[in-house]
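User: Quick sanity check before I run a bigger batch. Here is a single chain. Can you write out its predicted 3D structure?
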Amino acid sequence: MIIETTTLKDVLLITPRVFGDARGFFMETWNQQKFRDNGLDLEFVQDNHSRSARGILRGMHYQTENTQGKLVRVSAGSVFDVAVDLRRSSETFGQWYGVTLDAKTHKMLWVPPGFAHGFYVTSDYADFQYKCSNFYDPTSEVCLSFDDPTVAIDWPTTLGGEPQLSEKDQAGLAWGEIPLFD
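Assistant: Done. Predicted structure follows.
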């Protein structure tokens, strides 16, 4: 696998080895020993899979308690995936990183605890899968507004007009209202 740093401290872009021929392909999406050998000693407790249509935006979510790291990937379609650094002590505090994840390149993104995370579907539909380092805790979940002007994420929404949001995401908080990490 190839592990690349991103513009955000501790957020990593991972390209797995893919073996393919005329019949299809094979790849390992998770191998604890190989990740550990590459400096990522991760433990996961929950796997999630969502399917969303073009123009759906999910995020920007995080938990203040039972914080989650997420290893995210797309198994069908494509998304624009975003992480925002919420750690005051980080040199990339308040900055965002976005990357296209799709079923063609098989790239994955490691989003550690201390980041808000979300994605926007750029294909007809996308199957989004992720491994979590802690269990979902709805009592400590926070949603940063996807269009907060302080963070100023450059979403590729021109592909499908205004994004479609859940009620929770429509009620996202402004940067000055969200709890942050030390």
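The longest strand covers residues 46-53.

User: Great, the batch can go ahead then.
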